[in-house]
Specification:
With about 250 residues, this protein is of the alpha/beta class. It is about 40% helix and about 20% strand.
């Protein structure tokens, strides 16, 4: 069924892979970006593009209300430039702030726009340490310290709580493995949590109209994360690859 999608972070690495999938599925997409260059790239992909800062709560609400989406997909991160080796904790803090404050603003805007479902990007390496496999019901590592605490406690936990612990719309969290493939930081799969960029985008596509609210592990099956729930409820395929455009 055709839906109206508001894709936050459409110009990012997953967003760029996701836009063609959404369009091919017949959905009407409004994508956000922070730059004029990003808007031009999104327009070239054939979608409506808006320049908006997720930290500008009022502007975000206006943009989302104007788009009148059925579903919001949250693919925002602050990692496009990679980790600043001169200040790695600064990079983590900026990304955690986006996950914490940006997600809260998206949730408020989605509520104002009467959205039916929100799908949000999270990470699959935020669990409390134990012997694998990790299940979605396992606790997140709220006892983390140091840089890990920045990512998990200041970013991931408030993001997931904002999306999942409300009743105004259906909330789905995709706990992604470590991305590889075109446009990512690596051409080779991670040893513990590999996830091809096409399969990551495909998870967001199928979550538009599949699956009950909750968290889903999204990674290749290698014994680290249990992906049974995503395969069963979302119909997700870890081996999905998009055919190149001819």
């Amino acid at each position: 069924m055709e839906m109206r999608i508001f894709l936050a972070g459409a110009a990012g690495v997953i967003g760029r892979s996701l836009v063609p999938l959404l369009r091919e599925a017949g959905h009407q997409v409004t994508g956000t970006t922070r730059t004029h260059e990003g808007r031009a790239r999104l327009a070239a992909l054939g979608i409506d593009a808006v320049i908006v800062d997720v930290f500008d709560e009022k502007a975000l609400e206006r943009a989302m209300t104007a788009a009148a989406p059925d579903v919001v997909i949250h693919q925002l991160t602050d990692l496009s430039a990679g980790i600043d080796q001169a200040s790695p904790e600064g990079t983590l803090k900026r990304n955690a702030r986006l996950r914490r404050e940006g997600t809260a603003n998206l949730v408020r805007a989605a509520r104002a726009a009467h959205v039916k479902r929100m799908i949000a990007q999270s990470i699959g390496w935020a669990y409390m340490p134990k012997d694998p496999p990790y299940l979605e019901t396992d606790p997140l590592d709220t006892d983390a310290i140091g840089p890990r605490a920045i990512s998990v406690c200041e970013g991931v936990v408030p993001l997931e709580n904002a999306v999942l612990q409300q009743s105004d719309f259906e909330g789905i969290v995709l706990r992604y493995g470590r991305l590889y493939g075109p446009g990512t930081w690596s051409d080779q799969p991670d040893r513990l949590l590999p996830l091809h960029i096409d399969a990551a985008a495909y998870a967001a596509l199928v979550a538009v109209d599949h699956g009950r609210p909750g968290a889903y592990n999204i990674a290749e099956a290698n014994g680290t994360l249990s992906i049974d729930k995503a395969v069963r409820e979302l119909g997700w395929r870890p081996d999905f690859r998009r055919e190149p455009s001819r």
